[in-house]
Amino acid sequence: MITDRDLEFHHADSPAFDHAETLFLIFSVPEARISGNAYVLCRPNAGVCLSSIYVHQGFHANAWTADYSDAPMHVKCPETMADFTLSNGLFVRGSNNARDYYMRYEGRDDICRFELDFKGLMDPFDPLDPAQNPMLQVFDNDPEASTGAGDSWTKGHYDLVGRITGEISLYGQTFAIDCVDGLDRSWGPRAEWNSAPVSWMHMTFGDDLAFHLVVSLDIVGGQQVYTTFRFGYAVVDGQSCAIVAAEVEAESLGMLGIHRVIRLTDEHGRKWEMTGAAIAAAPWHSAYPSFISFQSLYRWTMGKRVGFSNVTDVIGVTTLSRKLSRLAQASPDTGQQ
Predict the structure, then answer these.
(1) Quick one: three-class SS letters along 264-290?
(2) CA–CA separation, 332 vs 139, rounded Å?
């Protein structure tokens, strides 16, 4: 069970060089086709922290045309992740057993600022808790296999959706924020090397209906293919339950997701099918040079229901090179021919 204790560091005195604690929030202004995120990774045993603020409007094939990026790699690690301020201007406070968060950002260059109030629509979902995640048994209670993220989430992870309200100012324009999207927190080994391909997906239709999936990825014929469903949940009328089966059909432009069809079944036997059409997308790799997150903001439809939320496909650069580079494709050892 996730509590306020999980807002604090876990194993902060670990001698492991790659121990890390992370926090990620993604948000949007759908009517303006704006998608943004705030990310923090702390290494308390090393005393350092990286922080990334990334905002883009519409579609961007390249990260350098996105509207805003602030990603210092080495700021001083805070004493706690429950209530802290970083030197790049990001303030974060968590509360209510990790269900609610407040974030404020004042960019050092006066180009971007935001204020966000995240109110969880559910208690945090712990994929390592068998009482919450029946998929653990499918993968023989192996956290590395069940989460699909290598060993990055094996020591601790939680995820939830919430109503995000506030505003963002960018290049002199101010936009109101009122969306439903995802937040997660993890602790454990986080090597800066070729993250296992995985997709972090949210499909939201309002406070009363939202879904989250984690699905493994592969690159086939230069396109993402969703392979193995790992875990997920549905939030229906304030009650959350596990997803037990899911499949995803994908169409992409380059590596940017453009169209998705998702079919899933929850633990109560309810079946859902939804379609997503991207209204904004961009590659985000300012936080980690070792992998790229291809982020798409989708307009989701399911019957008469319409919603907007984000999908993030996380793929290691080395994986992309092995699949897509000219030398790799010409080599008989890679099996790309």
Answers:
(1) EEECCCCEEEEEEEEEEEEEECCCCCC
(2) 33
Q: How far apart are CA 47 and CA 54, in angstroms?
A: 24
Rg for the chain (alpha carbons), in Å?
Answer: 19
Integer Cα distance of 35 and 17 in angstroms: 33
pTM: 0.95
Report the 10 Å Cβ neighbour count for 119. 15
Q: Say if CB 315 and CB 255 are below 8 A apart.
A: yes
CA 185 to chain centre: 10
Q: Which residue has the tokens 């070792």?
A: 290
What are the backbone angles phi and psi of residue 136, rounded to the nearest 5°?
A: -55, -40
CA–CA separation, 310 and 281 (whole Å)? 9
Q: Can you tell me the distance from the alpha carbon of 5 to that of 185, in angstroms, rounded to the nearest whole number?
A: 12
Alpha-carbon distance 38 to 52, whole Å? 6
Residues 6+ apart with CB under 8 A from 173: none
For 173, other C-beta atoms within 10 Å of its C-beta total 9
Per-residue pLDDT of the chain (337 residues; tens, 9 = 90+): 899 999 999 988 888 888 999 999 999 999 999 999 999 999 999 999 999 999 999 999 999 999 999 999 899 999 999 999 999 999 999 999 999 999 999 999 999 999 999 999 999 999 999 999 999 999 998 988 889 887 888 899 999 999 999 999 999 999 999 999 999 999 999 888 887 899 999 999 999 999 999 999 999 988 899 999 999 999 999 999 999 999 999 999 999 999 999 999 999 999 999 999 999 999 998 778 889 999 999 999 999 999 999 999 999 999 999 999 989 888 876 654 4
Q: Is 73 helix (H, G, I), strand (E, B) or coil?
A: coil
Say how far apart CA 217 and CA 313 lie, in whole Å: 8
- Alpha-helical segments (H) within the chain: 135-138, 143-147, 317-324, 326-330
